[in-house]
Structures
1.
Amino acid sequence: MGVPASEAIVVSRYLLKQKLQGRKRYPLVLMLEPLWRCNLACVGCGKIQHPEPILNTYLSPEECWAAADECGAPVISIAGGEPLIHPQIDKIVEGLVARKKFVRLCTNAILLERWLPKLKPSKYLCFTIHLDGMRDLHDDMVDRKGIFDKAVAGIREAKRLGFRVATNTTVFGDSSPEEMSNLFNFLMDDLNIEGMQISPGYDYPAAPNQAVFLQRPQMIQNFKAIFSLPDRKKWRFNHTPMFLDFLQGNVAMQCTAWGNPTRTVLGWQRPCYLMNEGYVQTYRELMEETEWDRYGYGRDSRCTNCMAHCGYEATAVTATMASPLEGIRAGLATVVSRKAG
Amino acid sequence: MKVLVVVPTHREAASLGAGVEPFVCGTGKGLGDAVAARLAADRPEVVLLAGYCGALDPSMAAGGVILARHVLAPGQPEIAPDRLLLEEVRKQLHKKHFPFVFSRLLTVERPVARKARKLALWNEFGAAGVDMETYAVAGAAAAAGLPWLAVRTVVDTSKQTLPRAVAKWGGEGDTRAIARDALRHPLQWAAYVRLARQERRARLALARAIPVLLEAIAGAKVVEAIPVVESNRG
């Protein structure tokens, strides 16, 4: 795994505490969306199709910190929309880092170089740059030329200044194993990023291009092909080995939607980061009043083709903690990837 | 409201307790015809299929309750219960804080004994549970134009490979053969003991579920069954 040992230890300790306290449901990653406004219109994105007044609504730093305190997750993924459009994103991050939360700032990196002087490198802050392929494919997926080069320049500058940098890649129908291999080799060998996140695209009904999404059996075949390539051993992923097994269809998992609660400008989104059945105003309402057993693969048709990390990585982490063998495997993966890095 | 409770075996029928007189439909070929004949003779208003199953959903433990939102069989069109009845019953169970999972049930011809096979079926069909009768019973009820529901409680989990003899189970007539095989293979005794404990949990769960379901059905407004045909994947 590409996650630093310090983060892995904090998360493990947190999980152990939840177990000892006998909590049935607890958050692992807070998905914080301080705005839905974006400066791109990616073909596979169904997050930003809101009326103008909602796109103009931003969470204040205080609201973001309150969400972090209310939820208590050790890791916070700031997504959106494009978080770097938020005029107070530096203040939001500073407050979360002060709370010793591991912050993953997910960005398309268009505005990254502008913000870098205003942010401080920290072991608690990691930029997660969205890259869906090498230049041609990525620019096609984000529907604008020049974004790949902009993102790569941003990654190089962030690394030069001492920031932690990872990437997030969504696998679509056009993501051939060779294309993914080229991207991962480039990210590892050339940019030497900390780790990569990978997830199949979720078939948002609102996404502009529905043709990019894969059905579940195709996804499994695609991931099997990607992970059978010879360069696989040098790729560092910010995932548990179990989640990567799941993507290849080697392990059965059910979604843990409550593992990644989502706070948006309209409230806590029910039931998960990808599906929207309305909002509640408190984290407690979200956890206690949602019919969690109603969602997941087989249980809701909208979950049929979902294999996203925001639903299944929490399952994998919990299963890893419950199995000594899986725990050792994940630990070894962390050590090996640190040495390789 | 006249509800016909259908169960595949006498063992499952015994778990329902007093006050419920189920129709034991059996397993295997001819099951659909037997159910159709009984429906024609009894003329119930609602059919409730109840029984045990194996879990494919990895989050389900022994004793877990599955209320079917769809039933499917390889190569066959999916069948859905009447939407209004299902939704009303689901809401009432939720209101009563009755723990259950609302998912698909897959029907196959032979027991699914190996965990690798369970994984393959889970990836292909996304059904929480697998059994050998639900599709035929639901099909017979749908053909008779009757609203139906299916509830199953989990015996074996998705991570568990069953003893060899259980994999050959084809109906209640095979129970003695399984017992004989168990006696001949002491190395599998632990697996049989585990299975017996799991069956007890499934039995208790079924006994708890049936009265709650019957009450929920009685309180529901039943509409004419409209079978919904969709793709059988996912």
Note: The interface with chain A takes residues 56-59, 69, 94, 99-104, 118-119, 122-128, 158-159, 233-234 of chain B (CB under 8 Å).
2.
Amino acid sequence: MHENDSSHPDGSAVTAVDLRKTYTVTEREGGAMAALRSLFRREKTEVEAVAGITFRLAPGEIVGFLGPNGAGKTTTLKMLSGLLYPTAGAVSVLGHVPSRREKAFLRQITLVMGQRNQLVWDIPAADSFELNRAIYRIPERDYRRTLDELVALLDLEPLLRKPVRNLSLGERMKCEVAASLLHQPRVVFLDEPTIGLDVTMQRRIRAFLAEYNRRTAATVLLTSHYMADVEALCRRVIVIHHGRLLFDGELADLVRRFTAHKTIVIELENGPADLSAYGEVVSSSEGRVTLRVPTSATAGVTGRILADHPVADLTVEDPPIEEVIERVFSQGPP
Amino acid sequence: MRDFAAIYLQQFRTTFASFVQYRASILIWMIWHILEPLVYLVVWSAVAASGGGNVQGFTARDFSAYFIVLMLVNHVTYTWIIYEYEYRVRHGSLSMALLRPLHPIHADVIDNVSSKLITLPMMLLAAGTLGVMFRPAFHTTAPSALLFLPAIVLAFSLRFILEWTLALAAFWTTRVSAVNQAYYVAALFLSGQMAPLALFPPAIRDTAAALPFRWMISFPVELLLGRLSPAEAWEGLGAQAVWLVAALVLMRAVWRSGVRRYSAVGA
């Protein structure tokens, strides 16, 4: 039932070309004299929050949008959803220019921010849902069907009738997500949807997002500080740092490009042995040795260990994704 | 049109449900809305009594009629939007509103109207009680009572649009309460809330007539009390209409540039 004529000519759902956002901030030193001085003259500095990034999202893709705090992720999401005017560059979402905030555009997108809420605090979520039905002009039948699905997938039944302020953080987040998706947006922007939630609830939201994407083929751009979210949902990730694009590609490639090392775990049959000649020993106990070796040397080292020692078990692992991301953020491009 | 009716109905249900949670603060607002004109009523009645029965043609019973009707008109037309906007801009809840395919003013209109629907019966009861206590004198005629209806609707619309526009100052400054104070003081004098405008010197009366304040509050009161000639009544309705159009044009312009600013500096 969605019109397809509104897509970008090249078939992308979301296109950003050399997107930039510069904020002007007034700064002053602490202290009373500085405060007085600032009455007359304000020091203004330009801060480049987003410094020219380009990417495209194909319809139906789920893409992880990563970067440390202050990298420009939220600013970018706000430009894509029409809340912020770009300083320069071009954005197109489903063929619309977001900052025009046309109703046809707003009806097809959603932005979920983990730290902001749209639900009315004092009334049950069910009432806020009804309000959204009216505002987004969702036909009664579609509304019922979508709501039933959301209630089942997110297990909302026991929450719908309670005032939102009486819900726990996780419960409220589930309702927020449901409220944001009632109008079946074709493009979904998620800014830290699992922030502050416990592991079970995070997994729940994650599973739900995957299912939602499968059912509706919506395009999803997701930021999260929880790598588990990204690993579970996104094959492709876009990494930005200081407002610049650092990486755009498959998550597996990111790991390959940014990790120069692999971890080899060896279980020896005859108990402890000194394996420090093969690589850096990370840990060693009761015949179980963990080695860190350069990726390029992994095959050779593995062969030699197998030849030289009686090995009960041997596994080669990539470092945990958190470690990779930490390295990416701290180093910048390799 | 039908879509709008659905939105308004649903927003009304939402607001109604929220308001039930705030019975105490609604009660406090109402007490304020009763006490403020009551004080002026008592003071001016005393002045009339000591001045030989009347002040420039207003008897004690004229004053009580004036302030009782003023109380109702003020209650029907007041808004609290200026307080709200500062919060919305600071806490970013405006961003959520901007993401919806609906102008945020609609929710505010409904909020306001539904709160009035909830409180009006009690205000009428208060007015009735004051009527028994202070024996107001009405000179209402049938035409003035009829014209009062469009006048009160126009007064509400004008005050709502103007204060909504003023609230948008929050886009430019974090000191909205200062703006609000200045506005409040001007309105207190020039809208006839402290004293009937007829008691002021001609220079102030003319100023009040040239500004929107009289048309937001005092005019419907004067009309209902039968203090205006038919010509003055029609002129007043005309002035209200002109101001309303001007306010709508102003609101549109300020809203556009405000949102542009908001989305330039960081929504």
Note: The CA atoms of residues 212 and 243 of chain B lie 7 Å apart.
3.
Amino acid sequence: MKEIEEANREALRRIFDAEPVLIDVQAAAEAIPGLGERVVLHAGPPIAWDRMCGPLRGAVAGAAVLEGWARDLEAGDELAASGAISFHPNHHFDAVGPMTGIITASMPVMVVENRAFGNRAFCTLNEGLGKVMRFGGNDDEVLNRLRWLAATLGPALAAGLKYAGGLGLKQIVARGLSMGDEMHQRNVACTSLLLRELAPALARTSREAETLGSVLEFIGGNDQFFLNVAMAMGKAIMDPVRNIHGSSVVTAMSRNGTDFGIRVSGTGDAWFTAPVEMPKGLYFPGFSEKDANPDMGDSTIIETIGLGGFAMAASPAVAGFVGAGSAADALGYTRSMYEITIGQNPDWTMPALDFAGVPTGIDIRKVLETGLAPTINTGIAHREPGVGQVGAGVVRAPVACFETALVAFAETMGVS
Amino acid sequence: MWRARRPFAERDKVTANELLEAEVRVVNIGLQAFYLDLRARNVAAVQVDWSPPAGGNPKIRDLLAKLGS
């Protein structure tokens, strides 16, 4: 239909015109209006406590202790089960979070402003690998790290970013793609580039050398630090694409460990959900698929903007890390994603594909016509609360949510 | 009126023989198990990632036809 093609061209224009800039780090309660007492934001579409998976419950209990709502994890569990905590998706508050995606009032969030459209998006700071809250970790080690992020890293980054006048992100991603990152499971290049850009400002705004050293050490020692930056960027890019009548472009894909949900531009903020699938991948020593929790996290905003599993051709190293096969297989994943998207991003190109742009703008019609579900690179959490990350892999979005989305989208077009 | 230059059966037989005398290279469409078996025996093979349009769902197929793409 001509109307759909025109609407999708507008969606693509808004994606390509975006100017995401990392401008600040603030406490979530300050940055996100409406994030009050005993409110927990989580990854994925809406979900009640009784349907939450183990890692998400573990993270909620940990957050309750962190915020002082509960004296220990058991009390945190009881509080959540009693209905005294209000749960909402990050996406309903212009935010995203990886894996469990928990955001509560005291946590520092990065603020990315899309200067072309004036909107802002938020994401927590990346905690590092292993036993961390985003993978359901909740012991003292995890909570103390979160306290350090709030007390030290967040304010240091905020001061540095203000001094630097913000950090333009599209250019960093463009360079990262040429250095082997796909921005979901490999962020070593972009993390290094960010550190190189911000280090002078961090040094000039630091009050003492030890704090500066710990900040530089934390960022430099965490290859995935840029993941959360890229996620906030993705949310800031895609939010202006919402609510274009007639557009069949996906504006969000997200999982809560139980349900996978998508949003489509032409159907506004409605969620279309289906049960999440189990990633196929590689496990850390001592763990196997029987330990794994099904797919989770808002990090699929990365694939929604054409990176991650869609840009695997740029990142042969990640193909090995997530068990996706050879470098040739990585090219194959990206090529197949051209089948379900409406354009190539001219700013984000991949050397291994003769500098073709990353596949951008997932069209629900193309997903269903081809039967090719979006490819997602992902971390894998342990199914029990409190353990953490056990591996990394590749997972497909469930086609069923695209089917229900198409039916609803057809109704908006007067088609049945 | 169309006439075959030689019977189909004879022509196919020759082709099949030639095929099996040369190195076998397989393009597999459908069940991936056939492809995996061939690869396990070091036979050159590729798997075509194919499924019926709309997953064979007639309602979705009908909507896709109306909505175009």
Note: The longest strand of chain A covers residues 341-350.
